[in-house]
Sequence to fold (287 residues):
Amino acid sequence: MSDLHDAFAFCQSELKRLDSVRYFASLTAPEAVRADFLAFQCFLADVAVIPTRVSEPAMGDIRLTWWRDIVADATVDQSPGNEVVNVGPVASALQVVQHRHALPIDRLVPIIEARRFDLYNDPMPDMPHFETYAGETEALALMLSAQILCKDVADISGLCGHAAMAICLAQHLFDWPQNVERQKLFLPADAFAAHGLAQADLIADKSKANVAAALLTLGELAEMHHAKAMAELKLVPKDVRSQIAPAFLRLAPARLMIRMRKKHPARLLRLARWRCYGAIWRMAAAV
Fold:
């Protein structure tokens, strides 16, 4: 990478490779901030996939610590000839975006730190812990994404909170069979305990009927958060809503995931990308 222009171009291609659905949604961002928005989404995608790229948790911890150090260094010299490319294209672009849009360090660091949970096989103990996890991995990311898209956005914490729960629940409901197979329980254990299921039962798949009942209950909770997020989004003034909408378009495929899991409570699911793209396109046109 010879300069920051190349770094931002790399972020776009890397995001498409890491998360094509997030990439497709990001293309709807206004042209004036699209490169910044894509770079930030690339950072989020990169952090999210770290647990799947490492052979042992310690290696993931090192990578997450590296990212924490990158965002903690908020001083970026953007004068000609001083682009910060030595840390890699994604980190270079992120530091510029962080500086340009005044993204707070105390909101960036929790996004990174929360991903340490993904590295280990500790179960999600209860719903309050899951809400915290969703808040740090998704809600904070949504708030900062909206800040990049619109400097004058008002308080949207309620919108971000409901959207985060809908997206997080949808993804982990959808991925439930694969996660259980590798003994990683992202969904809150107390939701299964309410149906008489212990962690050992889930891993051994001893009670499919009770597992299905618990997943259906969580699916209804996800639908409730999705509906509240969409209602909150509609309350945002139209001129602002049109600007921040790209940050929330992942609610569209989340709805598909929730409905598929409710229809097939314990089955391994597949969702074609074109269906995600279509849902995003329709939501973008509607908001």
Remarks:
- The first helix runs from residue 4 to 18.
- The chain has a mean pLDDT of 92.
- The two ends are 37 Å apart (CA to CA).
